[in-house]
Design brief:
Length: 295
C-alpha cells in the first residue's frame, strides 16, 4: 500500500529498499505513511534524473538540422556518384544503369577479391536515400558502404592508379611541382573507438623542385591541368635519380609537421569530450543516486 506496487511499476526499487530500512516506525500505519512519502520523493528524483541527462546530452541549438543538411548534401553529390562508378569500372565491375541513380553491379571482369559479398546475380544499388528506404532490396551507396570503402582502400594501397601527371600552363618560369596526399590514421583496437576523435585524415602537401612549400598556393589549388607526356620527363636520370627522391623527402617532412598539429588537435578534442562526460555524470549523480562512482 505504501509503495502502490499493485497499481504502478515501482521505480527506484533498490533505492527505496535502502531508505525504508532506515525508517523507525512504531506502528504499521506510520510505516505505510512514511513509505508513501519516500515513494513520491524517489519517483520525483528518478524523473528529474533522466530529464537532466537528456538536457545535458541533447545538443539542440540547430545542430541536428545542420547535420541533416550535410547528409542531404552528401546524398545529392553527383560528383561522388560518378567517381565511385568509375572506380568500380576501374576494378572490373560491370555497372548497368537501371533507372535514375539506380544501378546493377555485376562481377564482370573483377581483377580483385575486394568484393566478396557481390553474388553472381549482382547487386542492385542506389545513390538515392529515399529510394533505398522504399525498396529494401536495393542497397544505399554512401561513403560508408563496405564496397566503397574497400574500393578506396584498394586504390590507395595499390600502385596502379595512385599517381597522375598533368601540365599547368601559367605565366612565369618553368617548374616542376610535386603534390602528394598522405593518409593519417590511428591503428588501434576497434573497442577504443579512436576513429571518433581521429578518423582517417588526408594531408595534402605540395612543393616545387627547389623545395619551396606550395601547399597553400591559391593559384595551384585552382590550377586547370591538361594531359601531358610524362615519359620525356622520367627518361632523364637526374630527375628520377636525384630530384624526385629529394622532393619526396621534403614532402615527408612537411607532412610530418602537419601530422603533429592534427594529432594535437584531436587529443584536445578527446580530452574536452572526456571532461564534459565526467562533468555530466557528476551532475547526474547529484540528482540520481543510482549513478555510482564506478560510472
Amino acid at each position: 500500500e505504501g509503495l502502490n506496487a499493485f497499481e504502478k511499476n515501482l521505480q527506484g526499487a533498490q533505492l527505496l529498499v535502502k531508505r525504508l530500512q532506515q525508517i523507525k516506525a512504531d506502528t504499521l500505519p506510520k510505516f505505510i505513511e512514511e513509505s508513501k512519502k519516500l515513494r513520491a520523493e524517489t519517483e520525483a528524483q528518478m524523473e528529474r534524473g533522466p530529464d537532466r541527462l537528456l538536457a545535458l546530452t541533447s545538443k539542440g541549438g540547430g545542430e541536428i538540422e545542420k547535420v541533416l543538411e550535410e547528409l542531404d548534401g552528401w546524398d545529392g553529390d553527383r560528383e561522388f556518384e560518378d567517381w565511385i562508378l568509375r572506380l568500380f569500372d576501374h576494378f572490373g565491375l560491370e555497372v548497368e544503369e537501371l533507372d535514375a541513380r539506380d544501378y546493377l553491379l555485376k562481377q564482370g571482369n573483377v581483377i580483385t577479391d575486394a568484393f566478396p559479398d557481390l553474388s553472381e546475380d549482382g547487386m542492385a544499388v542506389t545513390f538515392d536515400r529515399d529510394r533505398a528506404l522504399m525498396r529494401e532490396e536495393i542497397g544505399l551507396m554512401t561513403a560508408d558502404h563496405p564496397m566503397v570503402r574497400n574500393s578506396i582502400d584498394l586504390l590507395l594501397s595499390a600502385e596502379a592508379g595512385n599517381c597522375a601527371f598533368g601540365v599547368w600552363e601559367a605565366p612565369g618560369t618553368s617548374s616542376v611541382i610535386l603534390e602528394a596526399y598522405y593518409i593519417l590514421e590511428c591503428v588501434a583496437p576497434a573497442s577504443l573507438q579512436t576513429d571518433h576523435y581521429l578518423p582517417a585524415v588526408p594531408l595534402r602537401v605540395a612543393i616545387d623542385y627547389q623545395g619551396k612549400d606550395m601547399t597553400s598556393d591559391a593559384s595551384l589549388m585552382k590550377a586547370v591541368l591538361r594531359r601531358g607526356n610524362h615519359r620525356k620527363l622520367l627518361e632523364q636520370p637526374k630527375i628520377t635519380g636525384e630530384m624526385i627522391p629529394e622532393m619526396l623527402k621534403t614532402l615527408d617532412l612537411l607532412a610530418g609537421k602537419r601530422r603533429v598539429a592534427v594529432v594535437k588537435r584531436s587529443l584536445e578534442v578527446m580530452q574536452s569530450s572526456f571532461d564534459e562526460e565526467k562533468e555530466r555524470l557528476e551532475d547526474l549523480a547529484q540528482l540520481n543516486p543510482l549513478v555510482g562512482e564506478e560510472e
